[in-house]
Amino acid sequence: MNAPVRADDTPRLEDFPYRLSDNVRFADLDPNGHVNNAVYATYFETGRVTLVKDPSMGLMPPGLGWIMVRLDIHFRAELHWPGQIELGLGLVKFGRTSTAFDQVVFSEGRCVASARAVTVMIDEATRRPAPLPAEVKENFRRWVRRGVNPDSD
């Protein structure tokens, strides 16, 4: 059995199977000259939405959608403009109606922020939580964070 991932461990990008690149924008900066803390939520959103909204991934059955219910961010280092970032995402937990992801932002090989995001599947007509369909869970399995069992408590 793999050891559990501890919150104080420094993440490694290779443990996150879903990755994409983005740019730090000048508009991301605050008056202190570094990326504003609120912008990280947008970086994390980009990673999640790019994955789940891609029709080829099979993560959004007709009539169902996703809502964000929690985002806990750990700011690890300053990030400046100009620059490129690498975003990483790994599924860490299946709930009855929810998924939990670990996410990271890397710059120049260094983790500058990490987060735990929890999303809930909803019925788009009733706006109420809906159980995760078996096919959605199966389609997420390729995106499980290395060293994690998403079915364990």
What does this structure look like?
This is Acyl-CoA thioesterase. Keywords: Hydrolase. Belongs to the 4-hydroxybenzoyl-CoA thioesterase family. This protein is α+β, with helices and mostly antiparallel strands. Helix content is 15%, strand content 36%. It contains 2 helices and 5 strands. The protein has helices spanning 37-52, 134-140, and strands at residues 18-24, 64-75, 83-94, 98-107, 110-123. The protein has a 5-stranded antiparallel sheet with strand order 1-3-4-5-2, covered by helices on one side. A hairpin with a 2-residue loop joins strand 4 (98-107) and strand 5 (110-123). The longest helix is centred in the first third of the chain and has 16 residues, at 37-52. The model is unreliable at 1-5 (pLDDT under 50).
In short:
This protein is α+β, with helices and mostly antiparallel strands. This is Acyl-CoA thioesterase.
Sheet-strand content, in percent, reads 35-45%
Helical segment count? 2
Radius of gyration: 16 Å
Structural class: alpha+beta
N-to-C span: 14 Å
Helix fraction? Answer: 10-25%
Could you tell me the mean pLDDT? 94
Sheet with most strands: 5 strands, antiparallel
- Write out the strand line-up for the largest beta sheet, numbering strands in chain order: 1-3-4-5-2
Keywords: Hydrolase
Protein name: Acyl-CoA thioesterase
InterPro entries: 4-hydroxybenzoyl-CoA_TE (IPR050563), HotDog_dom_sf (IPR029069)
Organism: Bradyrhizobium jicamae
